[in-house]
Design goal:
By secondary structure, the protein is α/β, with parallel strands linked by helices. An eight-stranded mixed beta sheet has the order 6-7-5-4-3-2-1-14. It is built from 20 helices and 20 strands.
């Protein structure tokens, strides 16, 4: 439960219709399994103590009294066990029969959530035996104890802030206004559902979309436990289709037609952070639902869920291709508007033969096509200097020509040497002055050519470089429109590859693939034996790690120790934990010290949910201190 992770389980036990003793034994076995797997919450199906398909047997006192006794025995069975259990049971209250999800913890029944919406159509006829739950919860006397009874009960963990659980039952979530809506607005972060939803053709797809959608709408975790094999097949078949979702994403899903328990971890802190940022998620002004405490131990949660190593890049190839086309269109549409609005006669792009400038040139060409402009008006400028290699130079030239741009070559070595002389810098000292003088000279050349040609300079820097401050202030940091400003480095590569795969020009495809194969480098230091001597990732760390860090910092506000925990699991086969920690500390130090560069960024199109524009998604003081985040890193023990 540390770092906000709560392990949950959705369990479908083997049952026998109306065999309460057998069903109770299977439920208790499921509780044991959940405890063995360190789950803190386990959810069983609707009416599973008796079986959902008992039909008119629900009118029999013998079945109902045994069901109640079984519930009490299961409750006692949870005594001394570190878990919150939800189990379905038919329950008589004041002479009326209700469909109930009972919450059990530490040896007691702590709450009885009633089903609000009883289906009475098609194959369902619940209103024949059951009464809808009361409109509002109330306390009832249950075995000499006062217990809350009714809809939308809230169960709050006393050992973990913001772990608040609420239950609904099957049809409730299929209704126009599910009870979980009010529960979530009053603080529930995890919704559980004891369900008995039969299988018909295509219903599994709808069920999956329904649960994912409800978890997204509520910005909540959702644990759905469905009835399975063992229910009566007189007219229906139940598939045990258990689902665990978190804010629109299915984290775990059971195989249908096979009774099993599924486990995963719901990130409560992430949900709370998402709600905090989402101004349309409004909490209730005057909470009215009862809050019932439960107890589970606070301890380290062993993670079984996975995290994508490249969160900005879809894993599925078809989805990735669609995403790439959409991003290129957004970039080009943004530039198209800016070119038209400023009546620019040309666009000037500094082209190095690297990934970022390649992407910027591709986007610029696409924008010119949209505007119906002659691509000869794209001025692709190559500016060789001390670190330029023949490979990148040739790729820059070939690419510019194949895309139809006008290539201009402006060697800057002599101008930089004169500048060294003017400021009294020794050209044999390859320090930051040596490097940044080249970057600023290139930007000056681009700006002046833009003036000559009545055009605008198109920025090439990407979001990962902006996050790390890996840009020369007023050098490559500056442009008139930054088309790549919201594109992380790990995604740049896929965009260029997509463009290469889509082109019908074999020569252009060959050049783009060679660019993809070239090490990332600013090429500001002299080559060694004709090859790139300065590799960015050797200096600031692997971009796949930094993009991973960036995503979880900006998207969910994770603390460094939590990012380390999930990074360690995600990259276990690629990086030693010492290396991960080293670059995580580098990320936070650079992210904070380099904010001043982001505070004065040129305009550029937003393409995703994570962005660094000081006018939109990320407004941070340039002199904010990193001390709190570094202190959190001190918690980590290797």
């Amino acid at each position: 439960m540390k770092q906000g992770f709560v392990k949950v389980a959705a369990a479908t036990p083997d049952i026998k219709v109306a065999d309460v003793a057998y069903n109770m034994s299977q439920i208790c076995a499921g509780i044991d399994d959940a405890i063995d797997n360190q789950a803190k919450i386990v959810v069983f199906p609707e009416l599973c103590i008796t079986g959902y398909t008992c039909s008119d047997l629900f009118t029999q006192d013998a079945l109902l009294s045994q069901a109640k006794e079984a519930l009490l025995q299961i409750a006692r069975y949870t005594g001394g066990k570190d878990i919150l259990v939800f189990v379905g049971v038919p329950l008589m209250v004041n002479g009326e029969l209700y469909n109930v999800a009972a919450a059990l913890n530490n040896g007691a029944v702590i709450g009885l959530t009633t089903k609000t919406f009883l289906p009475n159509y098609g194959e369902f006829y619940e209103m024949r035996q059951f009464r809808p739950g009361p409109k509002k919860p109330r306390e009832i006397l249950f075995e000499e104890d006062k217990v809350w009874f009714g809809p939308q009960l809230l169960f709050r963990a006393m050992t973990m802030e913001n772990l608040i659980v609420s239950a609904e039952i099957c049809e409730d979530v299929w209704s126009p206004v599910p009870p979980s809506i009010q529960a979530a607005t009053e603080g529930a972060t995890i919704i559980v559902n004891c369900s008995a939803s039969d299988e018909t053709i295509g219903k599994d797809t709808y069920r999956r979309e329904l649960i994912a959608g409800q978890s997204a709408r509520l910005i909540a975790g959702y644990v759905y436990a469905n009835a399975g094999e063992g229910e009566s097949t007189t007219d229906l078949v139940f598939g045990g289709h258990n689902i665990i979702a978190e804010n629109g994403t299915i984290l775990k899903e059971a195989r249908r037609f096979k009774n099993e328990i599924i486990y995963t971890e719901i990130d409560v802190k992430r949900l709370v952070g998402e709600r905090r940022k989402n101004t349309t998620f409004q909490t209730a002004d005057e909470p009215v639902l009862p809050v019932i405490p439960f107890y589970v131990q606070m301890e380290e949660t062993y993670l079984t869920r996975t995290f994508p190593s490249k969160p900005f890049v879809p894993r599925n190839e078809r989805t990735r291709a669609k995403r790439c086309e959409e991003i290129l269109t957004i970039q080009a549409m943004g530039l198209k508007k800016r070119l038209a609005h400023t009546h620019a006669k040309s666009a000037v792009v500094g082209i190095s033969g690297g990934l970022d400038s390649t992407l910027a040139l591709i986007v610029t060409a696409k924008a010119f096509d949209m505007l119906g402009l002659d691509k000869k008006k794209i001025i692709a400028v190559t500016m060789p200097c001390f670190g330029t290699t023949d490979r990148t130079y040739q790729n820059a030239c070939r690419m510019s020509k194949q895309l139809g741009a006008t290539l201009r070559e402006v060697p800057i070595a002599e101008a930089v040497k004169i500048h060294f002389r003017d400021i009294g810098h020794d050209p044999d000292v390859h320090d930051v002055t040596y490097e940044n003088s080249q970057a600023r000279e290139r930007t000056q050349v681009l700006m002046d050519i833009a003036n000559q040609e009545g055009g605008m300079v198109i920025g090439t820097g990407d979001m990962s470089e902006l996050a790390l401050g890996w840009a020369t202030y007023n050098g490559d940091h500056m442009s008139m429109y930054g088309v790549n400003a919201s594109v992380p480095k790990t995604l740049v590569r896929h965009l260029v590859k997509y463009a290469a795969d889509q082109t019908e020009d074999a020569s252009l495809m060959k050049v783009l693939y060679d660019v993809l194969d070239t090490p990332v480098s600013p090429e500001l230091l002299p080559p060694k034996d004709g090859k790139i001597a300065q590799k960015t990732e050797d200096l600031v760390g692997p971009y796949e790690l930094h993009d991973f860090f960036l995503y979880y910092v900006l998207r969910f506000g994770y603390e460094p120790s939590k990012i380390f925990k999930i990074a360690k699991r995600t990259f276990a086969d690629e990086y030693d934990e010492v290396i991960i920690l080293k670059w995580l500390e580098t990320f936070f130090r650079r992210f904070f010290t380099q904010q001043f560069k982001r505070s004065c960024l040129p305009d550029g199109p937003k393409i995703g949910t994570v962005a660094l524009s000081p006018r939109g998604d990320w407004r941070m003081p340039s002199d904010a201190c990193v001390a709190v985040w570094l202190k959190d890193l001190e918690k980590i023990t290797l």
